[in-house]
Design goal:
Shape: elongated
Structural class: mainly alpha
Domain Helicase-associated: 1-57
Strand content: under 5%
Order of helices and strands: HHHHHHHHHHHHH
Protein name: Helicase-associated domain-containing protein
Number of domains: 4
Pfam families: HA (PF03457)
Distance between the termini: 79 Å
Length: 269
């Protein structure tokens, strides 16, 4: 049976035999070793204990061992990131070598607030990692976005503008280096300088102009163009006819009679 256990270790890298493992006899024997070791009256022969211990058999709780191995893997990954001068960030989008290191760090931090996993926090800090200096700052987020932009194939300018500027409230709040990094990356990919602030002014309310057109022409729709005018009103009204949400924004500016006319003209009121 000992040889079968070693074969299991060779295949799966652990002596913890899973409950659903095909060899049920081996699993039962594995459990028996733990029970005998902890039994208050029955005594396992010392030579048997030595034989199992020599190959790395763990007599304690296998789940705790697995948890410890997982923690150790994360700590080793964190040490590697620090050694490589990686800019480590505490957020769910931060990954290092394909692993969600940022998510793990957040999880430990949240557990600490409940008084849990404080020992792991201490081990993290012993690696040289400082939670206080790796929070989710705008600069950290932008740095990660810039890195992702360089990796992107055929990036869509509008999509990337949305991704960048949802994190930027005011350009003045960014440091000079971050601004230069954004502008350089943007020009590199899109061959133009980024537009800071709103790209387009807010939508103009043309309700009064529309009502004047109705009074003059005797209809709400269509808006007839003469020498290209009134082109802005034409597009504005067309959007209202196609979008219930946009039409709903201005419904309160019409009388009941006007709303009935608009409904007959095909507007979603």
């Amino acid at each position: 049976m000992f040889e079968r256990l070693k074969a299991y270790k060779e295949e799966f890298g652990t002596f913890t035999v899973k409950r659903d493992y095909a060899d049920h006899v081996l699993h039962a024997w594995y459990i028996k070793q733990k029970l005998l070791y902890k039994h208050p009256e029955l005594k396992m022969p010392q030579e048997h204990i030595d034989k199992l211990t020599a190959v790395g058999f763990y007599f304690g709780d296998g789940h705790k061992l697995r948890e410890e191995l997982i923690v150790q893997e994360w700590l080793e990954l964190l040490k590697d990131a620090i050694a490589n001068n990686e800019k480590i960030v505490q957020n769910q989008s931060y990954t290092y070598k394909g692993k969600k290191l940022g998510t793990w760090l957040i999880g430990i931090s949240q557990a600490n607030k409940k008084g849990k996993k404080l020992d792991i926090r201490k081990r993290i800090e012993e690696t040289g990692f400082d939670y206080a200096n790796t929070s989710r700052t705008v600069e950290n987020v932008i740095a990660r976005l810039i890195e992702d932009l360089y990796k992107a194939e055929n990036p869509n300018k509008l999509d990337w503008r949305t991704r960048f500027f949802k994190h930027i409230k005011k350009k003045e709040k960014l440091d000079d280096k971050t601004i230069k990094d954004i502008e350089f990356a943007w020009e590199f990919h899109f061959h133009e300088k980024p537009v800071w602030g709103k790209m387009h002014p807010g939508t103009v309310d043309r309700t009064a102009e529309w009502k004047a057109y109705r009074k003059s022409e005797g209809r709400w729709f269509p808006i007839t163009l003469t020498n290209g005018e009134p082109i802005k009103l034409h597009h504005w009204v067309k959007r209202k006819r196609e979008s219930p949400r946009q039409m709903n924004r201005i419904k309160g500016k019409f009388t009941e009679h006007e709303l009935n006319e608009l409904k007959e003209a095909g507007f979603p009121v």
